[in-house]
Design goal:
alpha/beta, two-stranded parallel ribbon
Length: 171
């Protein structure tokens, strides 16, 4: 399989994405109690969005596959929604939808009054739906592998290794 096209998300585009998400949340008149960053890719945007919306932030890590940093924290987040707290989950991209579907399932399918999802880039062909998006792509057309500002410290080999874990996303 050929290497993907690596497309840098420059800082100006990233800041515009954060502004678009913040504006969309404000326009919806829904106010989260917590911003929840999904590790790794959602942590930086969640931090920026937390500042833009003036809301505190929590995090959960699904990328490391360590139960203490995923399952235990997902259970704590589920308890928060059961207590009526509103969570805005933030990730960098909704690509296949696996991460968002896992989150929604783990959080007990909390309704939209309590749980919403925001992403910088949303794949319209994804198996999962999000509530807020800064940009939309169609993976049948856009095959690029997006390199966000926080990933630019990684080597090309490392970025390609991340892509190599799920090359079908850009096939």
């Amino acid at each position: 399989m050929p290497e993907p096209i690596l497309t840098d998300i420059v800082m100006e585009r990233y800041l515009a994405q954060i502004e678009a998400l913040a504006d969309a949340v404000v326009a919806s008149r829904w106010r989260p109690d917590w911003i929840v960053g999904v590790g790794r890719g959602g942590l930086a945007p969640a931090t920026w969005l937390s500042h833009a919306l003036g809301r505190p932030m929590l995090s959960v890590d699904l990328s490391a596959q360590l139960p203490a940093f995923a399952d235990a924290l997902l259970d704590a987040l589920r308890q928060r929604t059961e207590a009526g707290e509103r969570l805005l989950v933030v990730d960098d991209i909704n690509d296949s939808g696996r991460t968002i579907l896992r989150l929604r399932s783990a959080l007990g399918e909390a309704d939209a009054a309590l749980l919403r999802v925001a992403v910088l880039i949303d794949n319209s062909r994804s198996a999962a739906r999000v509530d807020y998006r800064a940009e939309t792509i169609d993976r049948t057309v856009t095959k690029d592998w997006f390199v966000f500002p926080w990933e630019k410290a990684a080597s090309r080999a490392s970025i390609l290794a991340d892509w190599g874990e799920q090359p079908d996303r850009t096939a």
